[in-house]
Design goal:
Six copies of one chain form a homohexamer. In chain A, strands 2-1-3-4 form a four-stranded parallel beta sheet, sandwiched between helices. Chain A is 39% helix and 8% strand. Chain A is built from eight helices and four strands. Chain A has helices at 8-14, 41-56, 86-102, 118-130, 146-152, 165-174, 202-205, 219-241; strands spanning 22-27, 61-63, 107-112, 134-139. Chain A is α/β, with parallel strands linked by helices. Chains A and B meet through helix 1 and helix 3 of A and helix 1 and helix 3 of B.
Chain lengths: 251, 251, 251, 251, 251, 251
């Protein structure tokens, strides 16, 4: 069920049997994605994956609107980027958890479209876990199997980068009118800094805000990735909505 | 310009002459609107008004995505409602101001769709003013002239209530598929508490979450109200984008 | 009962039957009021109204000391003004609510003297309402009926402005020794900015810190306004202290 | 100068030569003081001392209203007590410092009447020091020389306790109408816990909320203590308002 | 028992009878101690005292690792000093209290080595007391009887200063390899500012970061002080671990 | 240089040429590590690796004391575990960064021993990066090459788990007296939950608090892992202390 399009009696009815329901929360960003992609790219992809998951499991999934205000400080050197503060981002996500829990929901899946949100999503899920709620948070790209990454893209690992072949392909599939392929440039291809876990701004690692090879993108590749992500996320929804045999019971 | 659909070079180009640009930020809620309207009502209306304003002033307005997570604690007794915390709401709005200011923008108009956000929007605008930015925040209903209210609706004042004749009419005009008129009930019509400024939950004042007479709503009334709001908001954008003769200069 | 002058056994006795008691909390400011009024004007007026209400309903009202540290950032361009932070102001007001609730009180009336506090008072009252306490917050001027405003003042609406005919009149009635009428100047009379909800500092809208026509003030007008405000506030106290038929019971 | 009774041009004039001015801020509490003293005792005493200091040094001292909302959690078992949160208390005091510093003031003396505020006053003064302001914070009792304590009271050290011979004496001198000597009881006289720095509530250490022997109090003793405190505080004001030879210059 | 060296089943066993157990938490700093002492001085001393207390009462004391990150803003003009924020320090100490309370512990003794932590330790202990836990916080120097101070040191009072005869002596006893006596200088000996409670940085009161006469230090003096502190702290542990006859029961 | 053992003049001298210095900050935890390892395991390992790195690069590395208070909420079902709050942990780490930056340092390497800290370390490094400091944060295990993991351990990937073969081996090498091998049990070996990014407590996934096969541990394996981690961390220090050719210059 799409929460935003429902009335309160419909929400009440849906959440009566909350043990079998999964709240699905898309998280994204409003941040630069190179000269060829729109600022809302991460949000649009997460929203599209989540929307398809809801369409496939309408009786299980309660889909919220997209949290489009992400943690994008590392992109702020590029115009148009809007970043949440860390605490503001956590407050928003926690508010969705806590509000819907007051209506009975206790299983949550955060479907993320922006790498910069990952640490915060993990903290939010941990906090939810502390409240004895069940919460998982993962980027859509984590639902794509390695085999699909390998079959689809040109020599890269599962780790998604930024405005790259993968993201551009998905956007070509979803919103071709918002992609300016003639402006796509390969960028940020130099060797990684030899220090693990180094924080840096995108202006320090790229020229145009791109990490990867968007010029290789096609709508077909995007369709394949999106489809795989949707299937993976549906499987996660199915696992969460059933009995949780993989966890020991809380006494 | 619609920020979310633009690339960062487009945003950079747009904000070069930031003195004549106005950032337009729709704010709404995800909260109960009676048995006949969807939870996202406030957000959809604010977004529609703002979208029309941008369409009329595309070279002046920088339209952000809608902040749909509003301050709705007083509706939490009705299922499906999601409420921000006060501090989380302020953080989100301040993040939009502050991020875009780092890209040069300094004039902001918050176009609100939810009465419960008003106090917080005022605080955010005050804080922006302290930063020497120019910020105004007003509900779309404040842009509708008294004469239009009187000509359009059935015996009421400019003060909008909740899921009432006015909101339902606008939704019938914008999203008739999301309105279940057969479930509309007039509600909350008793005399107001004889104490000004009394805080209360909607479950204490209504039976169904409605304050007003939605049964009187028509799409025509909604079109008239929406059109008037858009015209009023355009006038505000024009005033903000020009020289600010109505304010004394800051030395 | 005046809380500050009472001992703890007296407070304990008074709050035994807390359903019929109303805590009355005056809120004001320490901020510029033009060249003719003292910085503590808002606090002195709120305190005077509240004091008279307590004197008329000593067995119902528990009067706290005045919270004189208000939200006055928009006056900070004028010397002597002291402003609370928003969060600090809320903390103070919430502390009064929460502390007295631990002693049994649960009905609160915030009697405000400063427009800049209104948004914060509303947030505090909402938070109190969330705690299932009963809280109302209103400026003393809201207790004055329209008919009295019209009969008393020279062509103005109920909306009070700043250091104007109304405030100066009340101060002439209460504290003539603190009013320097020879320094009173009419100020800030230009047309309002054509943008609703625009935040601005008083240095941007006035020359001397005054919004209105204090030169028209008289002690007689002040006495009339004060008397009306006291009567209105007493009526609110009476309503709050009785059975709350105007609210649906919380289950 | 008494800030609250001044206009903004008077404040501006006073703070022109801010190096020789000292802002004097009385801090107190609204907390139980046994069955014989009013809840506002600490605030009334601090206010009285500060008022006399201002009267003796009107051209040096800028006296603010009293911060009566103190840190009184340890008295909350007794009715009527109102306590600030720690962060709320700090916010209030810091707001006074910061606001007046924006008008030029940078020397502050916090004149405290409540032991429970001491740790917080120290933190606030430290924070002020970090801002390169000059801030001192001390209870009025610290300005009374040991010799006066010994000459005045009956066998006790300089350390003031609570609602005891000293406080009751000062209140008999200042506000005899607010003291119910017939209800005064000696209390809390047992040996101290054999653990330094043990936190405890007053309900754990006293029967009636008193620590000491208020039955020994007289107005004469109170007058002597008050006079000594005023003289000591005036000396502190004089030291602060002059050149600060006792500190090394900040480069 | 030393918590950090124990396994969770050992901790569980130890805390079974939590009424007789005292959690011992050393707090210190990482701040300048003149040219002759290491930055970790306060932490090393607190840790040494606490370690000896644990060794004497292994069945009663649960010794945590040392909180070495203290409140040292007033030393920040000297290189190498690291200071906590006030709120960060409180969060750390409260986390230790709250975490161990969830495992059953409710009696806490904070053994402090740094004067700058005292106000914060008091606030933390008060907050613990509010939670109905038993918490005491005191510097190791407060456990040394006046008679030992007088017999050991050269003309000084019980109040410890900084990097002085006392601290240097204790370090000579504990860690002679970390003391550079040839660099010790007497410093900060001028008369105190004639204003009680004045906040200041150490760069404003000393030349080398020393307050006192470290040149008088000897390891023998240090051994005497340390031994006395340990005995005093053991007595406090014994009092806290037994029945609390010195407090009235909480109902 | 070891900061805690240095005096402030030594710190000042060391940080004169801060472009070539790297502050090394070990972070760990005080949390359950099964029945056979001590609660301080993570901290001891991080401290050991960092200590060896400092010993190999004494002129480059400024080693701080270990932040042993980690984010361990997910272990709180096991006694003895102490957890920081997220905000408290961030405050501590940020305080170390910010304090040492005031003394000139601007390159930081956080050497982590506890997986639960990773998200927070990333946030702290990002915030440092926003301040234009250079900050990297990585677990010691990330410095061990895949080839070493494969050559050393029994069928596992680089991802370290908890109290497992790897951690137990390193502890057998470092602190054999603190390891109770007779109590080691293999645990938590069931298949992972089929949902990526699922937050859970260790009591939901293990019986004894162990994730892995500690029974396979040997001191020799531990020595090999530790040595590899030290070498990897030294390489990171060397990269950070030199010219940063791998980053584009900040204009």
């Amino acid at each position: 069920m799409i929460l935003g399009r429902s009335s309160w009696p419909q929400a009440a009815e849906f959440l009566k049997d909350s043990d079998s329901k999964v709240v699905l929360i898309p998280t994204g960003s409003l941040e630069q994605h190179g000269p060829h992609l729109p600022l809302l790219t991460d949000s649009l992809i997460a929203e599209a994956v989540a929307g398809r998951v809801e369409a496939l499991r309408p009786d299980t999934v309660l889909l919220t609107p997209t949290l489009w205000l992400g943690a994008s400080e590392h992109h702020m050197a590029f115009s148009g980027t809007v970043t949440a503060t860390d605490s503001g981002y956590l407050a928003a996500l926690n508010s969705v958890f806590a509000s819907l829990n007051r209506h009975g929901a206790w299983k949550f899946l955060v479907l993320n479209g922006h790498g910069g949100n990952e640490a915060l999503n993990e903290l939010a899920a941990r906090e939810a876990s502390r409240q004895s709620w069940l919460a998982a948070a993962a980027g859509w790209y984590r639902f794509v199997p390695d085999s699909v990454w390998e079959a689809t893209l040109t020599g890269r690992d599962r780790m998604i980068r930024h405005a790259d072949e993968a993201e551009t392909s998905v956007m070509l599939h979803l919103h071709p009118d918002l992609v300016a392929m003639e402006k796509a440039v390969d960028d940020g291809l130099e060797i990684e800094p030899p220090v693990p876990g180094l924080a840096s701004g995108f202006h320090q690692r790229t020229t145009h805000g791109v990490l990867g090879r968007p010029t290789l993108a096609t709508a077909e590749k995007g369709a394949a990735l999106l489809e795989a992500a949707v299937q993976g996320a549906v499987a996660a929804v199915d696992a969460l909505s059933g009995p949780l045999g993989f966890l020991q019971p809380e006494d």
